[in-house]
Amino acid sequence: MWRDSVLVAGKDLRIELRSRVVLNQVAPFSLVVLVLFAFTLGPSRAPMAKAAPGLFWVTVLFAAVLAVQRSVSLESSEARDGLRLSGLDPAGVFLGKAMALMAELVVLEVLLGAGVVLFYGVHVRSALDLVAACVAGTVGLAAAGTLYGALAGGLRVRETLLPFLLLPVAAPVLLAGTRAWQAALGTAAGGAGDPWLRLLCVFAAVYVALGVVIFGPILEAS
User: Fold this and answer.
1) Got the DSSP string for 17-74?
2) What tens digit of pLDDT does each residue of 26-59 get?
3) Quick one: pLDDT band at residue 202, thresholds 50, 70, 90?
4) I need a surface site. Which of 3, 108, 161, 202 has the fewest CB within 10 A?
């Protein structure tokens, strides 16, 4: 399973490195969204710093939808037939595609994090909590995105259906990631970020386990 996951992740990442769609299109789009949010909040730094955690995770969700759509578009019907006939472990295929998507999201989050610091003037109180929230949230988004991307992959309307499937499911990541970032930045009204980090970890674990178990039947049905 792990060998197959490395093969699939390497394949997806090589395609992305050659096309550079994420770097040339998704990343600039995400930064433009951050800039537009900054304009709507006005020149004062106080409301911008307070809203930064939520705006960061909203932008990450938008970028994740685009990245998942890109991942789904790589697999045409012929490519999916090839995956079925390749003898690869379906769980390995799921983990490989999720790993590739996670790597792309990590790059986007690094750029967005730098944009938040630059545009919103936030001050980090606990960098470790920020990184932990991003890692757990990214794993959960990558697993859920790969799973729902496979569900929508065989449909003609997958470009419009995928956001409706993924965004409601990703609501716990938006909520818990925002609260964890507020605690890490010191802008939370009260309470620690540990319960929200645990929620992110539970979300990630559930969708990784779910994908490992049911990705095979979904791949066959699509």
Assistant:
1) HHH-HIIIIIHHHHHHHHHHHHHHH-S-HHHHHHHHHHHHHHHHHHHHHHHHHHHHHH
2) 888 888 888 888 888 777 777 787 888 888 999 9
3) very high
4) 3
Instruction: In whole angstroms, give the CA distance from residue 186 to residue 122.
Output: 10
- Residue extents of the structural domains in the chain: 2-221
Q: What is the average pLDDT across 127-146?
A: 91
Q: Quick one: which of 100, 109, 103 has its CA closest to 146?
A: 100
Q: In sequence order, what are the residues at sequence separation of 6 or more whose Cβ sits closer than 8 angstroms to the Cβ of residue 57? A: 137, 173, 174, 177, 178, 181
Question: Assign residue 46 a region: left if phi > 0, alpha if psi is -120 to 50, beta otherwise?
Answer: alpha
Distance, C-alpha 58 to centroid of its chain: 11
Number of H helices, E strands in the chain: 10, 0
Angstrom distance (rounded) from CA 166 to CA 61? 9
For residue 148, give every residue at least 6 positions away whose Cβ sits within 8 Å of its Cβ, in sequence order, or none.
68, 162, 165, 166, 169
Report how far residue 222's alpha carbon sits from residue 217's, in angstroms, rounded to the nearest whole number: 9
Q: Tell me the C-alpha distance between 7 and 17, whole Å.
A: 15
Is 179 strand, coil or helix?
helix
